[in-house]
Design a protein that fits this description.
single chain; mainly alpha; DNA polymerase, domain 1; hpI Integrase, Chain A; three-stranded antiparallel beta sheet; 14 helices; elongated
């Protein structure tokens, strides 16, 4: 038989079976919510916190679950996001789960995350740390909406950064170096690819997903409608190509084509027709830059052949993405305003473009001050 509650203890009593103290408070629906502790004072404290959370409507009634279980279910619920986004989420959670997955969701704190990022910082760059933090923050924000958390542990700490990591700066080729690269590519399968990349500043995935139907030779424009990515299947893990819409609404854009790009395109189309006639296994997918079989060009094969041309040209060791960076830098050096460059690149906001090409903006400022200096020198 349980001992009688002492006066003033309210709903606290000691259980005879194990000697633990028990207390409960009634929920708005009339059901009882119990708390337990080895001491009377301990259970009284828990009861006070319970009543306060009921009054403040912050009580977590969801079944207790670990961070690993929650994140697994959360990712599985993301059925309406792009597959490329899903892949990024899965990769980020794969880094975090081994270190915080065993912790109960309601017990996870900012301190746990600080330790997580310190471990990850030993073998990962800032970009990876920021991605992990961003994805966790999104996941825990949804946990609050589902009444599984009262607050977001990611909000307790600053975005993780390695203070000693040197900021990545992409290499931009000069106009002369771009011409050397084009000359080295002549006669190769990537001749038109390199010319077109420099002429449009398109992303690699946008180039790989480009179709002839996206190009208007009469109006001299190219319409960016999709991007191609080589990713593992979420179910089987087998890599295959997928096509999705560009990364943002502003990435779906129309770019005017230069005459030298159109000349290269026309010559490229003639060569492609010849390739198609010579290949019995050709897959007609209407791709502008296909593999020798007519389907998507694998990224690693593309990068291999591109690097050979870079070495032959004797220019700095750049990657394909830096063709885009080179074009944007050349546009800025020619006086094209940041807003126009932003639209051509398909950046979602002006700040992104301005931050990337800050070095060119500084040169603009210096030129402006030199001109101002000449004005005052003349007046004096």
């Amino acid at each position: 038989m349980a001992k009688r509650r002492e006066k003033g203890d309210g709903s606290i009593y000691q259980r005879e079976s194990d000697g633990r103290y028990v207390a409960y408070a009634r929920l708005p629906d009339g059901k009882k919510k119990y708390v337990y502790d080895k001491t009377r004072s301990g259970v009284a404290k828990k009861l006070k916190e319970l009543r306060m959370s009921i009054d403040n409507q912050t009580l977590i009634l969801a079944k207790p679950e670990t961070v690993e279980i929650y994140l697994k279910n959360w990712l599985a619920s993301k059925t309406r996001i792009k597959e490329t986004t899903y892949h990024n989420y899965k990769w980020a959670l794969g880094l975090a789960t081994p270190h915080i997955g065993h912790i109960f969701l309601t017990k996870l704190s900012g301190d746990h995350l600080v330790k997580l990022y310190a471990i990850l910082a030993e073998s990962h760059r800032n970009k990876s740390l920021v991605l992990v933090h961003t994805v966790l923050k999104l996941a825990f924000r949804d946990a609050i909406k589902r009444k599984k958390l009262n607050s977001n542990p990611c909000s307790e700490i600053d975005t993780p950064r390695k203070p000693d990591e040197k900021k990545y700066e992409a290499t931009a080729l000069s106009a002369d170096q771009c011409q050397k690269l084009i000359d080295a590519a002549k006669g190769t399968t990537l001749e038109c690819f390199i010319v077109f990349a420099l002429a449009t500043a398109m992303r690699r995935g946008e180039l790989l997903g480009l179709r002839w139907s996206d190009i208007d030779m009469t109006e001299k424009t190219v319409s960016i409608q999709r991007t191609a990515s080589y990713l593992p299947d979420p179910q089987t893990g087998v890599y295959r190509f997928i096509e999705t819409t560009p990364k943002s609404e502003s990435s779906q854009r129309i770019i005017p084509l230069t005459d030298f790009a159109l000349v290269a395109l026309k010559a490229h189309k003639i060569k492609q027709v010849e390739m198609r006639l010579q290949s019995a296994a050709w897959q007609d997918m209407d791709l502008v830059f296909p593999s020798p079989r007519g389907d998507w060009y694998r990224s690693n094969t593309l990068q291999f052949h591109f690097k050979k041309i870079v070495r032959l040209a004797g220019v700095p060791d750049i990657c394909i993405h830096e063709l885009r960076h080179s074009t944007a830098t050349l546009l800025r050096r020619k006086g094209v305003d940041v807003k126009t460059v932003q639209i051509i690149l398909g950046h979602a906001n002006y700040t992104t473009t301005a931050n990337i090409y800050e070095h060119v903006l500084m040169e603009d400022k210096e030129d402006a001050m030199i001109k101002l200096d000449k004005v005052f020198r003349k007046d004096s």
